[in-house]
Amino acid sequence: LGKLIADGEKDIAYELGLQKLPPVSVEQALNVSFSSQVRDLYDHQSWIKDQIIPSTTSDDETIIKTATYEGVIRKQATFASGPVTFTSQSPIPAETRMQSDTNQVYQVLTSGEVQDGEVTVIVQAEEAGVAGNLAAGAVLTLLSPLPGTGST
Predict the structure, then answer these.
(1) What does the pLDDT read at residue 90?
(2) How confident is the model at residue 123 (pLDDT cuts 50, 70, 90)?
(3) Is the pTM for the entire model greater than 0.70?
(4) d(Cα 131, Cα 136) in Å, to the nearest integer?
(5) Which candidate, 30, 56, 95, 126, has a CA 20 to 30 Å from the CA of 63?
């Protein structure tokens, strides 16, 4: 915007036969106004450029509309799931709830039996989408204690 204003000042001064425009004048005000509008047009053209061919710089709406037009159906979010191993002398019942350090809640899908002092169960996030994803080795904490089972 600064370059547009400076170039506009030079052009107006040249057309009026002046060395430089006065710092406060109608011409200065008009120049700033028109330069701002030109900058808005440049920004809009840049946005259009990003929408023409869908890419990482495109708006989500553009990507979705293009995918729909091309016949690509958007997949719905799924629930993250995976194995969790407990140190326990007791089986872990289905529907046992636990929480990650990011406050995401997970629930045991099927109960697990004790093998060598450990119980491995499959858990599923209660919230669909990437929010439920955890790195391997992440620690979960039981929301309610279970007899003979560590809380994490």
Answers:
(1) 86
(2) very high
(3) no
(4) 15
(5) 126
